[in-house]
Amino acid sequence: MAKKKVVFGFNEEFYLPDSLKEKMKKDFQDAFQFSEVSSDSELDRLNDTDTFIGWPTDKMIQAMSHLRWLQLPSAGANDFVNHPLLADDVVITNASGVFGVSGAEHILALILAFARGLPVHMSQTAKHIWQPNEHSLLIEGSTVGIIGLGDIGTEAAVRLKAFGARVIGVRRHVHNKPDFIDRLYGMDQINQALGESDFVVNVLPLTAETDGLFDSDRFTRMKQDAFFINVGRGQTVDERALIHALTTGKLGGAGLDVTSEEPLPKTSELWDLPNIVITSHSLGIAPGKPERLAALIRRNLGNYRDKKPLVNRVNRKLGY
Questions:
Q1: For 88, which DSSP code?
Q2: Where residue 1 falls among pLDDT bands split at 50, 70, 90?
C-alpha cells in the first residue's frame, strides 16, 4: 500500500524543534511519506498531499487537490471551517488542549492585575510616583462569568474556584454541570450571566453566532464597574462599543489578549486608555508548548494510520 503524504507547513509562527520533528518522522516512516514547505515558492512539494499540518495559504490549498486532513497548530479554526477553497470533505482538527494551562494562568494574571490595581501602579512607576491605590478588589467572594467552557475556560474555572470565586459558566449545552461551576447557563441566557459577573471572561471561538456578540447591548447589561477579559477572538467584540463602555465609566477596565485587527493598529484608541491591559495575543506562549503540540500531532498521526477517530475534530458547521 502506498504511503500517504504528510506535509508540515513550517514557518516563523509554527515550528517544531528538529529533535521532535525527526523523531516523529522516524516513528511513522512506515506509514507516511513526509515533506515540508515554508512558503508559496515550494508548491511543487505539495503534489499528492493527503495531510497538511500547519496553516496553509490559499495557494497551498489550491495545490493540494487530494487533501483529506488538515491539522491546525491552533485552537481556533475560524479561518478554515468555511474556507471557499477547502473541499467540504476535508477533515479539520485543531490543537485544543495544548493551551489550557497557559491560557488559564493568563486569565488569572489579567484578573489579578485589575483586582490589585496593577495598571495604576505601573503608570505610577513610570512616573516615579509613590502613591497607594485605595481601590482594590478580591477574587475571593467575587463572581466570575466565563463565557465559553472549552479547554481554556474549564482550566480557568478550576483555578478561579480555588481562589474562592463564585464561578458561573456559559456554553451551548447546559447538561452535566461540572462541580467547579456554581451555575451553568446556555448561550440564550448570556445576558443573565453578564449581569451577575464582577469579571466577564470571553473565551469564545469566532463563529457566525459569536461574531460581534459583545456589542453595546451586552456591555450595557454588565454590572457597573465590571471588568472584561477577552482571550477568545477579537472579532467577537464590537471595539467601538467596548471603548465607549470604558471611557464612560460603565466598565472598570478591560484585559485584551486579542483584538479585532492584529497587530492592533498604532492609531487605535485602545492603546491610550488608562484602564486597559493589552497582551498582544500571548496566551499560548509557555514552556513545553512544542512538546505538547508534538504529542497531539503524534497521537492523531497514530489514529489516522490505525483508522481510529481523530482527536479534536472540528465541526465545520458550528465552527469549532
A1: T
A2: low
pTM score, whole prediction: 0.95
Q: Of 106, 171, 218, 233, which one is the catalytic site residue?
A: 233
In whole angstroms, give the CA distance from residue 31 to residue 301. Answer: 9
Which among 140, 209, 261, 262 is annotated as catalytic?
262
Residue 233 CA to residue 202 CA, distance in Å, equals 8
Query: Is 281 in the active site?
Result: yes
Which residues neighbour 38 within 8 Å (Cβ) at sequence distance 6 or greater? 9, 10, 11
Architecture of domain 4-97+287-305 in CATH?
3-Layer(aba) Sandwich (3.40)
Q: Is 42 a catalytic residue?
A: no
Residues 208-222: pLDDT tens digits?
Answer: 999 999 999 999 999
Instruction: Tell me if the domain spanning 100-278 has CATH number 3.40.50.720.
Output: yes
Q: How far is 155 from 99, CA to CA, in rounded Å? A: 10
* Predicted local distance difference test score (pLDDT) of residue 195: 98
